[in-house]
């Protein structure tokens, strides 16, 4: 009996345009639990959660979610951060990550970029990766924070039987 695969792509981008399928993947492997979801503030200056927290372990390898160029690898407010620019004006950020890459390095999806450190206090896991995404020229010409889970194209597979020819 033959089967036909029906692919259904599901993506929650809000106002962001979806990236072509397969360009981005999880920054931790195996697929991590999402400890805290994205919470866009009503106004840019208000509190919110401008990324997602992914459960991990101290020292775990963090990989580039997609191909791009490392534009920052250092500390911000005492926390180690790596930022990667991707096509389409997108930038992903990874915190707290001790960099294994240098500014200017070209990375492919899945390239190791650093090691996850402890220190994300809002997370119950032994270590959590705060994974962020922003579009450089968002609404009103300012950077716009987006839900990084929107980069991942969840493609549930449903098989349906068909009559043999």
Number of helices: 0
End-to-end span in angstroms?
10 Å
What structural class do you assign from the helix and strand content? mainly beta
Radius of gyration: 17 Å
Mean pLDDT: 81
The H-level CATH homologous superfamily, spelled out, is Glucose Permease (Domain IIA)
Flag low-confidence runs: 1-21
Largest sheet: 8 strands, antiparallel
Overall 3D form: globular
Helical content (DSSP H or I, runs of 4+): under 10%
CATH class: Mainly Beta
Give the name of the CATH architecture.
Distorted Sandwich
Fraction in beta strands: 35-45%
Structure keywords:
single chain; mainly beta; Glucose Permease (Domain IIA); 13 strands
Report on the architecture of this protein.
This protein is mainly beta and 165 residues long. It has one domain: Glucose Permease (Domain IIA), CATH 2.70.70.10. The chain is 0% helix and 40% strand. The chain contains no helices and 13 strands. The protein has strands at residues 3-7, 34-36, 52-56, 61-63, 68-76, 79-86, 90-95, 97-99, 106-107, 112-116, 127-135, 144-146, 157-161. Strands 2, 3, 5, 6, 7, 9, 11 and 12 form an eight-stranded antiparallel β-sheet that branches. The chain has a three-stranded antiparallel β-sheet with strand order 4-10-8, with no helix packed on it. A hairpin with a 2-residue loop joins β5 and β6 (79-86). Mean pLDDT is 81; it is low at 1-21.
